[in-house]
Design the sequence.
């Protein structure tokens, strides 16, 4: 959820359409490729379910601004992140890991139980001033936290619950799968 894991490079070449050597600093998301490629292929953007992504072709070819007001970087029962402009809200970033996202009926023990008992950790960063997310501004900007938290909550309510099954009591993954 932090920029070290979500801000990644991409390379796109399309002679005559995308200027060689250009760099784009606009926020985009992986899910934007689907509607963009659909449009390029002449396919319909009308789908059974609403698309999460946006057409980024104007960003790539014309230098247009990002089509996003906000970008949901992740939402799970315990953790998530939302970017709105230069602001980024991170909920339980260092606490809520994928392994904690199960809703197992089996009571957690040890470190896992201790993590679940912790109050939610809320962090706020201004990426224009702090791309490394070293300075949490949540305490200094409670109104911005409240605003972004409300926007995040809308996404979280729409999200499908994780489809993974609860872990079997006593299950231990083998050191090397298949052996």
Sequence:
């Amino acid at each position: 959820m932090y920029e070290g894991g979500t801000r990644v490079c991409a390379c796109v070449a399309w002679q005559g359409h995308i200027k060689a050597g250009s760099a784009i600093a606009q926020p985009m998301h992986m899910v934007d490729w689907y509607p963009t490629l659909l449009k390029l292929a002449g396919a319909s953007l009308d789908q059974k379910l609403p698309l999460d992504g946006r057409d980024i072709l104007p960003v790539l070819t014309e230098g247009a601004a990002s089509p996003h007001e906000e970008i949901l970087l992740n939402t799970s029962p315990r953790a998530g992140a939302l970017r709105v402009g230069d602001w980024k809200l991170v909920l339980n970033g260092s606490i809520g890991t994928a392994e904690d996202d199960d809703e197992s009926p089996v009571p957690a023990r040890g470190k896992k139980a201790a993590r679940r008992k912790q109050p939610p950790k809320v962090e706020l960063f201004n990426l224009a001033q702090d791309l490394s997310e070293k300075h949490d501004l949540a305490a200094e900007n409670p109104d911005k936290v409240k605003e972004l938290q409300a926007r995040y909550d809308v996404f979280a309510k729409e999200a499908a619950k994780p489809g993974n099954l609860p872990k079997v009591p006593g299950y231990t993954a083998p050191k090397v799968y298949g052996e």
Remarks:
- Residues 12 and 154 are 33 Å apart (CA to CA).
